[in-house]
Write a structure and sequence with these properties.
Blueprint lengths: L17 E9 L6 E9 L3 H6 L2
Antiparallel strand pairs: 1-2
Protein name: DUF4295 domain-containing protein
InterPro entries: DUF4295
Organism: Candidatus Walczuchella monophlebidarum
């Protein structure tokens, strides 16, 4: 049986649902906004937004 290639960024998380979250952060020095994009498990979304 041939091995199948996994797409880049593939994560084997079993049955966990993953969500793409985008956080907007204001830079103090340049007074501009920076967007942080990340894929996190559903149960870690609040943790992602509560950290700076």
């Amino acid at each position: 049986m041939a091995k199948t290639k996994k797409p880049p960024g593939f994560q084997n998380n079993g049955s966990k649902k993953m969500t793409k979250v985008i956080r907007m952060i204001k830079s103090i020095k340049s007074r501009t906004y920076v967007f942080e994009e990340k894929i996190v498990p559903d149960n870690k979304i609040n943790d992602f937004f509560s950290t700076k």
